[in-house]
Write a structure and sequence with these properties.
It contains 9 helices and 10 strands. By secondary structure, it is an alpha/beta fold. It has a single domain, classed as 3-Layer(aba) Sandwich (Rossmann fold), CATH 3.40.50.1110. The strands form 2 sheets. An 8-stranded mixed beta sheet has the order 1-4-3-5-2-6-7-8. It has a two-stranded antiparallel sheet with strand order 9-10. Strand 9 and strand 10 form a beta hairpin. The radius of gyration is 17 Å and the shape is globular.
Length: about 280
C-alpha cells in the first residue's frame, strides 16, 4: 500500500536534526562538477526538446562520471549543462556531474532510442561523488544543485520527465529510518519547486567489498511505498571484478548498470512522455 507523503512529515522533521558524519560537508560546499565545455558541440535546447525524454540524474559517484571508459556521442542524445544553462551533444564525461570518467547514462540513452521508446534523450546530470543523502536535503551543501538544475531547465523551456537517484554507498552506516526520513525531505523539496515528475530510487550501497542490506531495503521501500517515488534498479547485484573496480563500474559494469535502468524505466516511458506525470 502506498504511504501518503504527508503522513511521514512529522517523523521526517524529528529526524531531520540528525546529521551523522558530516565531515564531507565543507568539501562539497561550492562544488560544481565537470565543466570543460569549450570542446563540446553546443546545440539549441528547444530544437531538440520535441519528443525527447528529459532526465535529471543525481546522487553520488556512480550517478556521475566515475566509470572506466568513455562513451562517445550518440545521435539524439544531448547533455543539458546546468552550470551554464546550455545543451550540448552528449558524450562522456557528462557536463555538470562530478568525475571525469564514463557514466551509465550514455548507454541507457542509447538503449531507449534503439528500442524505439523515445526519439531523443536530454540528460541533466548533477551527481557529486562521496555525497550523502543529507547533503541533498534542504539545508545540505548540495540542495542548491537541485534548485539550480530545475530553474535552468525551466528557463530553457525543458520539462522534467523523471529524476534518477543512485546513491547510498556513503550511507551504509546510516540508520535506515534516518535515510528514509532524509530522502523524503529531499523529495518534498523537489515538489515545492513545482516538479511533479517521478523520482526513481535505485538500490545502491555496494562499495569495495560490502553492501548494506538495511539501506538497500530502505531504498526498496521508498521506491515501492510512497507516491511520486518509483523503484529503480538494484545495482547491488552487480559485483565482481568484471563489473566493478572497487566502488565504481568497469565499462562492462556501466553497460549492465544501464541495462538495469532500462528495465526499470521501459514500461513507464509512454506515460512519462504524455504530459504532467501523476503520482501513483
Amino acid at each position: 500500500m502506498k504511504v501518503q507523503l504527508g503522513a511521514v512529515l512529522l517523523a521526517a522533521a524529528i529526524l531531520a536534526g540528525y546529521r551523522g558524519d558530516v565531515g564531507g560537508a565543507d568539501r562539497l560546499a561550492g562544488y560544481e562538477g565537470y565543466a570543460r565545455s569549450f570542446d563540446r558541440v553546443r546545440v539549441p535546447c528547444n530544437a531538440n526538446s520535441h519528443n525527447a525524454l528529459v532526465l535529471i540524474t543525481f546522487g553520488q559517484s556512480n550517478a556521475g562520471n566515475s566509470g572506466t571508459g568513455l562513451f562517445g556521442a550518440i545521435p539524439g542524445v544531448y547533455n543539458f549543462n546546468f552550470l551554464d544553462g546550455q545543451c550540448y551533444k552528449a558524450r562522456d564525461p557528462l557536463l555538470g556531474a562530478g568525475g571525469n570518467g564514463g557514466s551509465a547514462w550514455m548507454p541507457l540513452a542509447k538503449l531507449l532510442i534503439e528500442r524505439d521508446l523515445v526519439k531523443g534523450v536530454i540528460i541533466a546530470p548533477i551527481a557529486v561523488g562521496g555525497s550523502r543523502v543529507e547533503d541533498w536535503a534542504p539545508g545540505g551543501p548540495l540542495a542548491g544543485r537541485i534548485d539550480r538544475v530545475v530553474k535552468s531547465l525551466g528557463d530553457a523551456g525543458l520539462p522534467v520527465h523523471a529524476l534518477l537517484w543512485h546513491q547510498g554507498e556513503s550511507d551504509r552506516a546510516t540508520r535506515p529510518e534516518i535515510y528514509t526520513a532524509t530522502f523524503l525531505r529531499m523529495a518534498e523539496a523537489v515538489r515545492t519547486l513545482g516538479v511533479a515528475a517521478p523520482i526513481y530510487v535505485a538500490r545502491a550501497t555496494f562499495c569495495g567489498d560490502y553492501a548494506s542490506s538495511a539501506i538497500n531495503a530502505a531504498q526498496m521501500q521508498l521506491g515501492a511505498n510512497y507516491p511520486g517515488l518509483r523503484p529503480g534498479p538494484d545495482t547491488d547485484t552487480l559485483v565482481g571484478p568484471a563489473v566493478r573496480n572497487g566502488c565504481h563500474f568497469t565499462r562492462r559494469g556501466l553497460l549492465e548498470h544501464a541495462s538495469l535502468w532500462f528495465d526499470a524505466l521501459a514500461a513507464d516511458i509512454p506515460g512519462l512522455m504524455q504530459g504532467p506525470p501523476r503520482f501513483r
